[in-house]
Amino acid sequence: MNRQKSFENQKPTLYVVATPIGNLNEMTYRAVQTLQDVDYIAAEDTRNTIKLLNHFEISTKLISHHEHNLSIAIPKIISDLKDGMDIALVSDAGYPAISDPGYELVKEVIKEGFNVVPISGANACLDALVVSGIAPQPFMFYGFLDRNDKTKKKELEKLKKYQETIVFYEAPHRIKKTLKLMLEIMGNRSIALCRELTKKHEEINRGTIEEMLSVIDDMKGEMVIVVEGSHEEMTDDVVVFDQSINEHVEEYIEKGMSTKDAIKEVAKVRGLSKNIVYNEYHKK
User: Fold this and answer.
1) If you write DSSP's letter for every residue of 167-217 in order, what string do you get?
2) Structural domains of the chain ordered from first start
3) Which residue, of 7, 37, 168, 212, has the greatest Cβ tally within 10 A?
């Protein structure tokens, strides 16, 4: 168990700072103050972040922290926290770790016993959800679908029976193909397609997938897709387990299976990947 009382200890801290997704006026006073006060800022792309810092006259040192240098960046940050430094983590827009680098670092910082503190701000998923006109709860944030069409189809097949509203991110050059696959697999549902949120050319399109496909060629920019949930009743083949994954694995181990075979069997029974079961069991 990890119990963190963020402001009742003197531990070095990693601040996870949300930054504007377009409109710079969405930067909070607290975020500006935090970025001024930390020893340095770990940024997804220093070229983008320096523009933000210059706008708010923040002179704090920047280092790179992106998906291609994690093996170097994470040990450095952990070492600097051990030396008593406070560090801020930012991505290019919105929250770090939400479809952006950050999760791996946060996990390691927690493991080492330091504070991880969120600094609130803009989020494209929630912005799109609350203006979509589609039921905002319950909802599932999925983020980006796989780039490979075959894998993307499998993902959508798994999601099509979910009754929750689902929020996706998609790149402009893939949006048309993604909508066609959604129409083919999930049916002609009501969706909201939001682009350039908080920016000058913000556009929120509400209608069916078919209607959206008729105008999609005119749209550019990063997209957020809010898709209504399925109206079909969940079928009997959906199994709800009354025990946790860890308890399920332990049950098979008690029956004489090795840990490896127990994890494999639980993954098969639950319809999960072995990696998911393995990671869940070994983090207990």
Assistant:
1) EEEE-TTTHHHHHHHHHHHH-S-EEEEEESTTSTT-EEEEEEHHHHHTTGG
2) 13-122 (3.40.1010.10), 125-227 (3.30.950.10), 245-282 (no CATH)
3) 168
